[in-house]
Amino acid sequence: MEKIMRVTGKGKLSVKPDMIRLLLDTTKVCPTYEEALRQSSEQTEELKNCFEKLGFARTDLKTLRFNVDTEYENYRDENNVWKNRFLGYRFTHNMKLEFDADNERLGRVLYALTQTEVHPEFRINYTIKDTEAAKNKLLAKAVADSKEKAKVLAEAAGVTLGDIVKIDYSW
């Protein structure tokens, strides 16, 4: 009879962020589709010019998502009936700018953004460049934890551990 022991290991890892990811969103309603595309392009160029003055390459500003939708508003007509009115085309442009974690540089970037006509909404994420290396360290810690648990359980059960038959790798 085959003896099976199933153990779940956990790993904890603290990693100091080494990269700043600045997420920028621009949006505007324009009367025509062509105007929406033109406005988005002009705003993106202004942001690229802004960042280029700070030492970034123009290609450092990356598009994550670009969308153009129709925009309507609800209103009541003269008979007090609710209706929809076409307002135009809303573009939404989501972008990112990533650079080494440097709060002084971030401060210069944020100040420069306040000086532009674009005024994008933004979010700041502190992250790590090599996520795969961090995941691998975490997996190694989880496996070490499960091995330790298995040793304790085997000793308490009065059995010896053999070779690992199966590892279920899921998050």
Structure characterization notes:
The chain is α+β, with helices and mostly antiparallel strands and 171 residues long. The protein is 35% helix and 32% strand. It is built from 3 helices and 4 strands. It has helices spanning 33-53, 103-114, 131-157, and strands at 19-30, 61-76, 82-100, 121-127. It has a 4-stranded antiparallel β-sheet, covered by helices on one side. A hairpin with a 5-residue loop joins strand 2 (61-76) and strand 3. The radius of gyration is 27 Å and the shape is elongated.
- Give the oligomeric state of the chains in this entry, treating copies of one chain as homo and distinct chains as hetero: single chain
Indicate the percent of residues in helices: 25-40%
Find the structural class using helix and strand composition.
alpha+beta
Mean pLDDT, nearest integer?
94
Query: Strands of the largest sheet, in order across it?
Result: 2-3-1-4
Q: Mind describing the biggest β-sheet?
A: 4 strands, antiparallel
Low-confidence stretches: none
Number of strands: 4
N- to C-terminal distance: 31 Å
Given the C-alpha coordinates, what overall shape results? elongated
Indicate the proportion of strand residues: 25-35%
Query: In sequence order, what are the helices and strands, one letter per element?
Result: EHEEHEH
- In DSSP terms (H or I, runs of 4 or more residues), the helix count works out at 3
- Radius of gyration over all CA atoms, rounded: 27 Å
